[in-house]
Design goal:
The protein is an alpha/beta fold and 537 residues long. Helices cover 41% and strands 14% of the residues.
Length: 537
């Protein structure tokens, strides 16, 4: 669902460059586990052995830690978790270990840490000052990345799903009977290819307990924590279970934890509405800048956009090979164009690229949007990728999803009413959890208050495409002690892309100081929809 949203060049990498070329023609101790769930109590867990590190890249070390599959059975089945460390570059001034979770659920923290040198200026990228004084620790959560990533579909099934045409005007993209059949195939695949007890163990409370095992294996008495998006669910869970183990905590692009662990249907609706708002912000800015700056739609971008989506869906554009081969390599339809637009509109730094790609498609060149669509591998709504399998498994372990189809029909109607363009993407997106084969019967159910932990710094974007600002306000109220910092502008994640936020977060990490609650950071660069490539007259 939720992930890092880097700036255009870093986020889309080669896809960005290719699209542009097309456009231009060129301490140790026992983990103190105690139950906060509605059922059962966690048993004491022995202290893990110190981690055995091996070099696995420039300035990187890797290790594996084994943790209980279920903490109520600490001597039962064990599962291996991948851990990576980037050592403090100024060890004489080292403060301690900073553990981070980059989101998802489903984003591999170790992969993110490995790529950090290449992603400066993107959400979640640590400053040189922080890297100097902390060992940055990445742990792939259970079921993610190198920690036994969940797989429910075969490669062929995933390829078939990716090749399926979706209808943007139909809630869920397909007729309901097809969606129900897809959900059955997916959940049956999970039951067939995965151990049900393992699936049931993928809850966020277990991830928090795993983090404390890592803390103990590192020999740290306390940890500093940074969470982005879904990582802001893990952080409050850890602070609630282990408040005395928290040194400092920063929660960026926060999720409303009360909603996360509640009914998944209102949760998905909030995400759809948030995404719709960022698209509307692009429309509003394009219209306000005028046709001389944003020529798409000649002053009426909404109407031009709807017409383009309908045209592409009725007659998809053939995409020629970049090598000039006469055989098309694919086609761009309305559903693909809508999904790409949703992703690009959610980050104001990619608005110029969106304008350019829409103008190209309007003129019959679908290659830029098609190229970018192939790079949009993470979405808050179902997409046929392996990462979606992991995301679904964690969401289903944490949330309460109605099993009756009537509730999903009502939610689909609500989503398409409140988010008329994006709402169809959210419709029926929780069907997999409605028939999940491995219910988690002992998940944490009480509010995540973090009582007893130091004040948390909560950082939220004013217009976030997947974690709306009111979720940050709710989190600040739910936490026993928290400070809210708001960044103006459109985008998911604020640390690493905004100088005002960077200063505040670094101060929290390094000195334990926070800005005044309610402080607002202005955007560094005003948003513009001016295309990357000027329109030919």
């Amino acid at each position: 669902m939720i992930r890092l949203r880097p700036r255009a060049a870093a986020k889309y990498g080669a896809a960005f460059a290719t699209a542009l070329m097309v456009l231009t023609g060129c301490s140790s101790g026992t983990s103190g586990l105690r139950s906060t769930s509605a059922a059962g109590a966690s048993a004491p867990v022995r202290s893990p052995d110190p981690l055995t590190w091996s070099t696995c890249g420039k300035d990187l070390q890797c290790a594996t830690i084994k943790v209980p599959q279920e903490y109520i059975e600490p001597e039962g089945a064990q599962i291996p978790l991948a851990v990576m460390r980037h050592r403090a570059t100024d060890p004489d001034q080292r403060i301690g270990s900073l553990i981070f979770n980059p989101g998802g659920p489903g984003v591999a923290a170790t992969e993110t840490l490995r790529n950090l040198p290449n992603t400066a200026g993107t959400p979640g990228a640590f400053s040189p000052a922080v890297l100097a004084r902390f060992d940055v620790i990445a742990m792939d959560p259970r079921g993610v990345g190198q920690s036994q990533a969940v797989r429910c579909l075969t490669d062929q099934q995933r390829a078939d799903a990716a090749g399926t045409s979706f209808a943007p005007a139909i809630p869920g993209g397909k007729p309901l009977p097809r969606l129900l059949a897809d959900a059955a195939a997916f959940t049956d695949g999970c039951a067939k290819h995965q151990n049900k007890k393992f699936l049931a163990s993928l809850s966020t409370d277990n991830v928090a307990r795993d983090i404390d095992q890592v803390r103990a294996a590192l020999g740290e008495k306390k940890i500093t924590y940074y969470g982005l998006s879904y990582g802001t669910v893990v952080g409050p869970m850890y602070a609630t279970l282990f408040p005395h183990r928290v040194r400092q905590m920063v929660l960026d692009a926060p999720v409303d934890t009360n909603q996360w662990f509640g009914n998944s249907l209102p949760f998905q609706n909030d995400v759809a509405v948030a995404s719709e708002r960022t698209l509307n912000a692009w429309f509003k800015t394009c219209r306000a800048e005028g046709a001389a700056v944003c020529p798409f739609g000649a002053g009426d971008p909404e109407a031009a956009f709807d017409t383009l989506m309908d045209t592409l869906e009725a007659k998809p554009l053939k995409i020629a090979s970049a090598k000039g081969d006469a055989t098309p390599i694919g086609e761009l339809d309305g559903a693909m164009a809508l999904e790409t637009t949703r992703a690009l509109a959610g980050d104001q730094n990619t608005w110029p690229l969106l304008t350019s790609a829409l103008l190209a498609a309007q003129k019959g060149n679908g290659a830029p949007l098609y190229t970018l669509w192939n790079s949009v591998t993470v979405s808050p709504f179902p997409v046929p990728t392996a990462m979606f399998e992991t995301h679904t498994a964690v969401r289903c372990a944490d949330s309460k999803t109605p099993s009756g189809i009537a509730a999903h029909k009502a939610a689909a109607t609500k989503a398409t009413t409140e988010a008329k363009r994006i709402g169809t993407r959210a419709a029926y997106s929780a069907l997999n959890c409605a028939r999940w084969p491995a219910p988690n019967k002992d998940r944490v159910t009480k509010p995540l208050t973090g009582a007893g932990a130091p004040p948390a710094l909560v950082v939220a974007g004013r217009l976030d495409p997947v974690t709306p600002h009111h979720w940050a306000e709710n989190m600040t109220r739910t936490l026993d002690s928290a400070v809210l910092l708001t960044r103006e502008g459109v985008g998911h994640g604020s640390y690493g892309i905004n100088s005002c936020v960077d200063r505040a977060v670094d101060a929290a990490f390094l000195h334990g100081t926070h800005p005044t609650d309610g402080t607002v950071c202005k955007t560094d660069t005003p948003a513009t929809t001016r295309p990357l490539v000027p329109a030919k007259r």
